Amino acid sequence: MTDPRTQATRTSMGVGDAGASGTPAWSGPSGWVFFASIIMFVVGMFNVIYGLAAIFKDEVLGSGGIIVWDVSSWGWIHFILGIVLILTALGLWAGQEWARWAGLVFVTLNAIEMAAYLTVNPFWSFLIITLDIIIIYQLTVRWEQQPA
């Protein structure tokens, strides 16, 4: 037998039994999805900041060349991809299924983009690629089916 106070608290938080439609109440993204969205948001912010630095002051980022284009062109790619990652992270926070798949696509693109950026700043690129791999892991292995 459950304590009625505990049950009332759980139901008010959206964690209770089935609602009027017979489906369980949804309580938001799981802890692992929330963790992945936080890391994705941070990586997106890093990309926005790094992109702005590359656009406006590219000489401070390094003297190495990039496989294609110049540093300021890649800055625009960083900036736009950063905005998209931030928006996708917000979608994950809201528990949107599309955000899971969009996150996988955009984080994979971000890792590939950072591999092209290895010649400019190897330590930074390696760090971001590592965070991207953590996000991909959390969105694939740790994704739990959410009740409808």
Terminal-residue CA separation: 27 Å
H/E topology pattern: HHHHH
Which ranges are low-confidence, i.e. pLDDT below 50, for 5 or more consecutive residues? 6-19
**Count of DSSP H/I helices:** 5
The largest β sheet comes out as: none
Structural class: mainly alpha
Total E-strand runs: 0
**How much of the residues is beta strand, in percent?**
under 5%
What spatial form do the alpha-carbon principal axes imply? elongated
How much helical structure, as a percent, in the residues? 55-70%
Kindly provide the radius of gyration, computed on alpha-carbon positions and rounded to a whole number of angstroms.
20 Å
* Residue-averaged pLDDT: 77
Write a structural description.
This protein is mainly alpha-helical and 148 residues long. The protein has a domain at 50-56 and 68-148. Helix content is 66%, strand content 0%. It contains 5 helices and no strands. It has helices spanning 4-12, 31-56, 71-93, 97-116, 122-140. Helix 3 runs antiparallel to helix 4 (97-116). It is elongated and about 45 Å long. Mean pLDDT is 77; it is low at 6-19.
Short précis:
This protein has 148 residues and is mostly helical. The chain has helices at 4-12, 31-56, 71-93, 97-116, 122-140. α3 packs antiparallel against α4 and α4 (97-116) packs antiparallel against α5 (122-140).
